[in-house]
Amino acid sequence: MIKKIKNNLFIILIVLTYISLFIFKKELAITSVKNSGYYIKEMLMIMPIIFVLTALLDTWVDKNTIMKYLGRDSKSKGVFLSFILGSVSAGPIYAAFPICVMLHKKGASIRNIVIILSSWAVIKVPMLINEVKFLGGTFMFTRWILTIIAILIFSYISDKIIKDEDLMVEKDYLNNKVNINIRACIGCGICKKTYPEFFSIENKKAYINEVDNINNTLVEKAIKDCPVNAINK
Questions:
Q1: Do residues 50 and 102 make contact, with C-beta atoms less than 8 angstroms apart?
Q2: How many CB atoms lie within 10 A of CB 153?
Q3: Contacts of 152 (CB under 8 A, 6+ apart)
Q4: φ and ψ at 173, to 5 degrees?
Q5: Phi, psi of 177 (to 5 degrees)
Q6: Residues of the chain with CATH 3.30.70.20
Q7: pLDDT of res. 144
Q8: Radius of gyration of the chain (CA)
Q9: Cα distance between residue 77 and residue 179, in whole Å
């Protein structure tokens, strides 16, 4: 019981916060519930499309291409392309996470991932257009230049602090390396349904079980079917 509470502490705190609001500030609680419902609805509409798009990109774009244009050796070319990818994107920032997971899996550097996420969040073209409309061109251009400088600095620092292995959880079994990105895993259970002897779900995350003989066909199917590309070999 204590373990379950610890694993779901964040959700429990949210529920307790809503209960407290309903007791002491009912109007604020109702507004909060409406806002939460709006964002949940938005996620349910957007995320399936993002998962499909991510899967298609994962299939169509090979690893060598990603490494060439977004990898560690891409240098200024990779930085420029990362700014472009983030700036012309559409949708909320959380839509960028599964795409960045896929890019990192295929060789994109930490620095370029940070640039894509940051650009997606604060210098998207649609946002800049609205910024000019409401705040003026001088404000937008000044803020845009300073933001780009900040992104370059923070991406450089992040690349020095964060290592590629920090984003991946790896386990080796019988000379077959199967990687599960715990941060990307959404606990959908598709891998477990595909190969229940090898995969298991604990605390809404996928894990690997030790087996005597690995069925590589089922492992490959689980990798292919994973909606967020959290599994790879």
A1: no
A2: 10
A3: 79, 115
A4: -140, 120
A5: -90, 120
A6: 168-232
A7: 95
A8: 21
A9: 29
Do residues 142 and 130 touch, judged by C-beta distance below 8 A?
Answer: no
Average pLDDT, whole number, for the chain?
Answer: 85
CATH: 3.40.50.2300, 3.30.565.10, 3.30.420.10, 3.30.70.20. Which one for 168-232?
A: 3.30.70.20
pTM tops 0.85: no
- Pull the structure tokens for residue 165: 């292995």
Residue 62: φ, ψ to 5°: -80, 165
Q: Which of 100, 115, 119, 97 is nearest to 158 (CA)?
A: 115
Q: What is the dihedral of CA 115, 118, 123, 126, to 10 degrees?
A: 110
Secondary structure, 3-state, the chain: CHHHHHHCHHHHHHHHHHHHHHHHCHHHHHHHHHHHHHHHHHHHHHHHHHHHHHHHHHHHCCHHHHHHHHCHHHHHHHHHHHHHHHHCCCCCHHHHHHHHHHHHHCCCCHHHHHHHHHHHHHCCHHHHHHHHHHHCHHHHHHHHHHHHHHHHHHHHHHHHHCCHHHHCEEEEECCEEEEECCCCCCCCCHHHHHCCCCEEEECCEEEECCCCCCCHHHHHHHHHHCCCCCEEC
pLDDT tens string 182-201: 777 888 999 999 999 999 98
Give residue 168's pLDDT: 55
169 bridge partner residues: 180
Mean pLDDT of 121-141: 92
